[in-house]
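User: I'm curious whether this sequence folds into something compact or stays loose and floppy. Could you predict its structure so I can see for myself?
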Amino acid sequence: MKYLIPVVCLALVVGCNNPASRKSSNEQTMDQTFQPGSFGYDLEFLSKHKKTIVLQRGEAMLAIVPDYQGRVMTSTASGKTGPSFGWINYGLIQTGQLAPHFSNFGGEERFWLGPEGGQFGIYFPPGKPFDFDNWQVPAPIDYEPFDLVSADDTMAIFTKDIQLTNNSQFSFSLRANRSVRMLQPDQFLARTGIALPESTKSVVYESVNRITNTGKLAWTQSSGLLSIWMLGQLICSPTNIILVPYVAGPASELGPVVNDAYFGKVPADRLKITDNLILFKADGLQRGKIGLSPLRARNYLGSYDYEQNILTLQFFTKPDHHNGYVNSMWELQDDPYAGDVINAYNDGPLEDGSQMGPFYELEASSPAAALKPGEHLEHTNLTIHISGQVEDLNKLLQTLFGISAEEVRTAFN
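Assistant: Here's the prediction. I'll summarize afterward.
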């Protein structure tokens, strides 16, 4: 699998490694073998509550939980004492309970399905308003386990048979297959054309995600289609900025650069658009979401924490065609297949003052899957976290995003 294009990847990100931000108020009984914020701390915590699979190449490590759909809960580039990159909802996991609407256990790379809203959405029951009270993540991608097929030191494979009904009452039968494999830096180079400076530390992994129509009916645009939707919940920080490159060109030909109307327009002091790059604050202080269409999206995005000197990237497979992406807007839609390829979300308080996180997300979707019985669609993500000296990360930022570390630092001054 190659992701070569003028640049690379979809991202998960690192932010607040402040121990206070990583520890829930009701979590006072954890062993202190490792410091909060470290991979070892998170691994101990997860292992107390769920079977946890550890993949490892040298100091690079992943923690994967089969009961949470085989999601990568967190990772590190520096062994058990190194920083942990995924956001984990300690409080909810510790209760052993499910939550209404969405049992948000966290995790830096997880498998979801779209569309969310609209007449073909799978997160709202028929006839109900598209609002938070009626929003419900389907159980197979919320809290139901995936079956572990096999695992070794560097790879784990999962499967799940799923039944879903969309807002227009069309029923889907499908099988999800998911594999997660750790890669070496030279494999990252082979896939992206990007060489990592030798002085940096990194953790690189790739997930291959497939859905197969196991039912008796074809999936058609008139009845609704599904897509593979990959999301990563990352640790927010006032010094963490999401970076999304885009295809430049006139709006008359390519449409708007960015859709920032998911939860109300994102204010200018939180979202900046340059000639070929979008910068979006990932501080967990105000809820907002952006999206890029197939004509505007490239095949990667990322984030950079300029205090921690951590760069997160995520590459994904993006076909050459520019149509047929499901629309997840929370409304009845004029064009349900004019959806976004890339999304980024910054968490913040809801209207009642509660908050799911705080965290932020980097997201990418496959095209809509018009599948006949027995046919499948596959979508691949490659995720990398890189830590090092600012000089090394500066070179990568300029290669990938055309921006310097200092320009990221001062973008919202």
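Summary: Residues 128 and 193 are 48 Å apart (CA to CA). The longest helix spans residues 390-401.
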